[in-house]
Fold Putative myelin P2 protein.
Amino acid sequence: MAVNQYVGSWTHEKSEGLDEFLKAMGVGSIKRKMATTVNPSFRVELDGNKIVIHQKLLMKAKRTVFEFDVERTDQNPLDGKDVQVTETMDGEHWNTKCSNGVTMARSIVDGKLIVKQTFEGVTFQRTFVKAK
């Protein structure tokens, strides 16, 4: 199963274009400044046919459980509003489509996890390294 390459713990290495992306989403300057200083980490696990993601961001922890190709409701971390989310696997690529117009494309390149998020033509990229 292609998702196996994503299983494990990942730590943030760098971000590119985050401020521009957040501006496009209408996020104010104070929240943008805070977001650019955060170094997120997360762990991906498999539980049967479900994916479990444990995220650590600032002082918050979040656990998300989902199945590929099944729409679910999640909360947008920027404004707290509910958003419909569908996760899919396309070969080796893990994609996410949200009802607010945000898309995410994840891939493993040279052992690093590359996450590209796009909103209205503006893309930012985060690079994660697998924890030992």
About this structure: The chain has one domain: 2-126.
